[in-house]
Amino acid sequence: MLSGLLMANYAYSDTASVTARVSYEEVDDGTADELISMKYTLAHNKALADNLALIVELSAGAVGCGQQYKRSKTYSN
Length: 77
Known about the structure:
mainly beta; 4 strands; 69% strand; elongated
């Protein structure tokens, strides 16, 4: 199993910031196929008070098989 996370945060005021995250996970279950997962997240953080914040996140992801299969084309006359 291999996984990783890359994150960047930008605070554009004293009470607000934007965070972007990209995560990767590769799982080997012992078969010929490996499961690969990528997830992208964008979050906005707004401090409403000293101990209160509003956080909104949008995420999109993809899951696929790590082994590539070649398609063979058959042409007939």
